[in-house]
Design brief:
single chain; mainly alpha; 19 helices; globular
């Protein structure tokens, strides 16, 4: 109880607290994005088959996003309920929420294990009839799904650390796993000549390293959450509370998978080489996740801090959470926009260092990065509002926002651009246009939530 009373989320100035907690979360989320970027860089540089291997990873990527989506969605609900329970100083509930989070992580892993064993080849076959791409994509996807416990488990334990304000420990865990992934990618793909399987195993090993380090930090350093095995026993009320917020968060994250799968299908109908267009989209999308996951990192910070202070019924700190959460996200995404405009070309060239991928693919990828990054600041605003809405207990409104920015606006706009003879230049405008249109709805949702939830708190 005393640990909860001294929690820094109740005491430190909000403006300072956001960067202290938010920066480690940004680093953690960006490193998660880098797993896929690094895999693609090494795979695209495979001699002779680099372009085809990159296409295979692009086709498999929606399932990887889905793993992250369900894990992160569960983690968001877990984080919000944990932070709220800590703010309410309800220790028994805190421990029960954590235990049920572990139970849910094991169930999620079992689902993806079955998918990997029986449905990997079927999924890859939906998007290609090239036997080489089919074989490489199936091999990569089967490994990533059958051994996804590291990714899912880390997401759960990361939230335990974040909910108690110990974000630096989760970042250290993520950094160690990411470094291992980078080193092993090179060793497995080039000296050992393991191909796409090497990229998959490097990712899996890195994820398990992150999980084991996070578990050690949690059990030895996280005194605010009890770790008795009895709390792993599922409780309907706790699980319902986690997914009251978490299910919409999971769906929102899963829409990233839907969007990418849909874009793969739409781009595959364009009157240009699908290896170039789909491959360029795959590279661009993994690069832009650096910006997207930075916004998610701050959105998670908003959820953690705002849930805690809203649980304590502190009006002024809740207002400050919303204000600085949005401002910090806008500043961060604007800085990333400037950075990507500057480094778009050299960054894209990393995918063709050995000649494994064509210069045409690299040129299109650089163009996509420069055009689409214009929408990052609008994306940041939308994602920040999603975090505010989730922290205040809304489920439907953040889901509507995600549907608008990832599906409802994206698919028709992208399809219209593919009908043009200039598709390689025009289709990338889909993303900033969709984000700008969504901002209108996000602003309305924010005002409604602030009026109905925060401004009515009694002092």
């Amino acid at each position: 109880m005393e640990e909860i009373k001294r929690n820094k989320m109740a005491l430190q100035p909000i403006k300072t607290l956001f960067w202290k907690m938010g920066l480690p979360m940004i680093i953690s989320m960006v490193l998660q994005a880098l797993y896929n970027v690094v895999d693609s860089i090494f795979v695209a540089n495979m001699q002779g088959t680099g372009a085809l291997a990159n296409e295979a990873l692009t086709i498999a990527f929606p399932v990887q996003i889905m793993i992250i989506a369900i894990g992160v969605g569960t983690g968001v609900g877990l984080n919000a309920l944990l932070s709220k329970s800590l703010g309410e100083r309800h220790q028994e509930k805190v421990d029960a929420v954590a235990g049920n989070g572990i139970f849910l992580g094991l169930i999620i892993y079992a689902v993806f294990l079955l998918f990997g064993l029986f449905l990997s080849k079927w999924f890859i076959g939906l998007f290609t009839d090239n036997p080489v791409v089919l074989e490489m994509g199936t091999e990569y996807l089967r490994i990533c799904t059958c051994f996804s416990l590291g990714s899912i488990g880390f997401t759960i334990y990361e939230r335990f650390l974040q909910a108690t304000g110990k974000t630096m420990f989760s970042t250290i865990s993520q950094v160690l796993g990411a470094l291992a992934n980078i080193v092993l990618d090179y060793v497995f793909i080039f000296p050992l000549d393991m191909g796409v399987a090497g990229a998959a195993w490097a990712t899996i090993i890195g994820q398990f390293i992150s999980l084991f380090v996070a578990m050690a930090f949690h059990y030895f350093k996280n005194k605010e959450i009890g770790g008795h095995p009895k709390y792993i026993r599922p409780k309907r009320g706790i699980i319902k509370g986690i997914y009251k917020i978490g299910v919409s968060a999971a769906i929102m994250q899963a829409l990233l998978s839907v969007m990418m799968a849909g874009m793969n299908a739409i781009l595959g109908t364009a009157s240009v080489d699908s290896t170039v267009l789909v491959g360029s989209f795959g590279i661009y999308y993994k690069i832009q996740q650096i910006a997207l996951f930075s916004a998610f990192g701050l959105s998670n910070t908003i959820i953690t801090i705002l849930s805690f202070n809203y649980g304590m019924r502190d009006k002024e700190r809740s207002r400050a959470c919303i204000k600085y959460g949005i401002l910090d996200t806008l500043v961060t995404t604007f800085a990333i926009t400037i950075l990507f405009e500057i480094i778009a070309v050299p960054l894209s060239k990393l995918f063709a260092l050995s000649g494994g991928s064509s210069t045409v693919l690299v040129d299109v990828c650089a163009k996509a990065t420069r055009i689409a990054s214009i929408g990052f600041i609008f994306m940041g605003f939308n994602v920040a509002i999603q975090g505010v809405l989730q922290a205040l207990g809304y489920a439907l409104k953040p889901l509507i926002t995600a549907l608008l920015r990832l599906v409802i606006f994206v698919f028709p706009i992208a399809f219209l651009f593919t009908l043009s003879n200039n598709v390689l230049n025009l289709v990338w405008w889909t993303f900033p246009i969709a984000e700008m249109l969504t901002c209108i709805f996000s602003f309305v949702f924010l005002k409604q939530a602030k009026d109905k939830k925060v401004d009515v708190i009694e002092k």
